[in-house]
Amino acid sequence: MIRRAYDWTLRMAAHPKAPHVLFWVAFAESSAFPIPPDVMLVPMAVTNPPRSWTYAAICTGGSVLGGAVGYAIGYFLYETVGQWLINLYGLAAEAKAFRAAYNDWGLWFILVKGLTPIPYKLVTIASGAAAFDFWTFLAASVVTRGARFFLVAALLRWFGEPIRGFIERRLTLVTTAFLVCLIGGFVVVRYLI
After folding, report:
1. pTM here?
2. DSSP class per residue in the chain
3. Mean pLDDT of the chain
């Protein structure tokens, strides 16, 4: 089933309505769909480099809006089904500790996980379940998802087809290197300037 979804997503990258489909793939991936929008973004940006930034913006917008839906799933299901399960297993104290820890460290969790190929839906749903501040979640999502998609678009725009295979094989390495640079920048600003 996942292979069929992947193949469908790849085929849609060549469709005349590809930008619309790209938005909905990015939207759905943030809460339910198993295939990341990079599968469409990469071939679209390679075949039409001048539109790379537009495609990255479409991915960012779809992903952030879909993330808001994922947040709502976590937030509203936590209060109904989630709370019942926690009480059933006697884990109320642990759940309270998780929510407190998430409120302290959630911003970093969102920033780190939003850049990596780890399914973003886990971040969005966990943020809602922890009742993390919605506006902080949304702002962090714009930064982290935008950074990820614009990084991919920039590499494809500047290096074209040769970088496509590298990104597809080493997406984790590319985003991890970017993440290290991003965190390193925060550390430098915080402690050295």
Report:
1. 0.73
2. -HHHHHHHHHHHTTSTTHHHHHHHHHHHHTTT-SS-THHHHHHHHHH-GGGHHHHHHHHHHHHHHHHHHHHHHHHHHIIIIIHHHHHHTT-HHHHHHHHHHHHHHHHHHHHHHHHSSS-HHHHHHHHHHTT--HHHHHHHHHHHHHHHHHHHHHHHHHH-HHHHHHHHH-HHHHHHHHHHHHHHHHHIIIII-
3. 77
